[in-house]
């Protein structure tokens, strides 16, 4: 497969002696402190634990390279410059000079796009002039990650709308539970230990509706569809409302709901409420 342009992703380059410490102290994931083959998943959270930005982090050419959805790029850049304070870190916004892509073989700056057991080829980063031959239709990538139950900010949910557990980062190696504090860490830890994750990614197929349409289970809305590609989407749904997976509908039409192969959760699971 040819390299595929992911036109909705923006890349930032973090360099300097304090780059690793800054990122490791602010985002959820295991930030690499040297060359690695596989990129690290991460999220930047609000103090209330909601996802403000998410993506992959890889080390190459003496710097850390992080990508985010274009809808949150300005806010991410602003926040990281604020968190930098007096740290010796240079943060470069490369949206005018570099492009992010997907490939089945490594090229340019490449790191494996692997979330837990889910392998999605390689995230590649290259200067604009080197990306001119990349395919512009990213349907193959979107189809692959939707089929695997991988949720992406911007495509499936907006900023400040979902918790890290809602998109499965606790299962997909996007949270380092062993490291010290980071922004929103208390909320993440509480959800892990109290079992208060209300929503989880669910694959919905047989769709004849648009992204954002409500998913109805037991006469109640369980969540909304993410990006729809070839009649399939990933939706972040309330598991406790799906007591009969065969009775789920979208816009009055029946759909099929399945759990990702990596899911450590089940339909109909009751949610332990805070304080119980």
TrEMBL record:
InterPro entries, alphabetized: CAF17_C (IPR057460), TrmE/GcvT-like (IPR027266), YgfZ/GCV_T_CS (IPR017703), YgfZ/GcvT (IPR045179)
Domain of life: Bacteria
Domain spans labelled CAF17 C-terminal: 198-264
NCBIfam families in the record: ygfZ_signature
Gene Ontology biological process terms from the UniProt entry: iron-sulfur cluster assembly
Protein name: CAF17 C-terminal domain-containing protein
Keywords of the record: Transit peptide
Organism: Devosia crocina
Family matches, as Gene3D superfamilies: Probable tRNA modification gtpase trme, domain 1 (3.30.1360.120)
